[in-house]
Known about the structure:
The chain is an alpha/beta fold. It has one domain: Alpha-Beta Complex (Protein-Tyrosine Phosphatase, Chain A), CATH 3.90.190.10. The chain is built from ten helices and seven strands.
Amino acid sequence: MKRHIPFERLHNFRDLGGYRTAGGGTVRWETLYRSDSLGKLADAGPEDLERFRALRVTTVIDLRYPWEITAKGRLPESPDVSWHNLSVEHRPYDQAEIDPAVDPWRYLADRFAEVAEDGTAELRTALEVVAAADGPLVFHCASGKDRTGLLAAVLLALLEVPDEEVLADFALTELATERLVADWHAAHPGRALRWPGYGRAPADVVRLFLADLRTRHGSVYAYATGPVGLDPAVVTALRARLVEPPERRPAPARPAV
């Protein structure tokens, strides 16, 4: 199975399958994907569109602001795909203008905390949509890094994936950083990129975010079933849908007497 799905226009599309859970299970492959903006497929070549259709995605969650979708486009409409716009971030900020003098990973973790507190209604709906989807699902924001990374971290934690795997998954965006920066320069000709950490996704950001969340709420499960308002039955449904249970090996035969 492949973690990274290669596209010409998409830089950060990957499968969340294969991660081991605390109970010995494995997150199912080809069921849950994360990505940068699928709006890029609107002007992509036929190869990208065919590659996306081959994944048989039935549900898309777009975590961007409505104004981002108006400006940058969305996944081309299809009767086979259910599309949900759930804008989890309520306090916009420009990452390109982050002060280079601040601690960037602490700064981003604090923005994650804001999203976790402001976007509880959208996060609840997103988790409910993931649990109820009847086929492969992909969620995305603009770069597939921060809003997408937050939802991925919460989801994987609810599936009881160990922190080291959650952090490693977030950090895989670093493989797309160069292309994300190139896209920013192409979209902003003549403008200087003030923050040198633009497009970076070190594991420290999610390490800080999860530590802060647990300090405040006790656990990711307590956060999801408390402030987010998620019914515990939905967590059970998420695990049933997304986790392949451990293989049951037959008991050894008793020796003949």
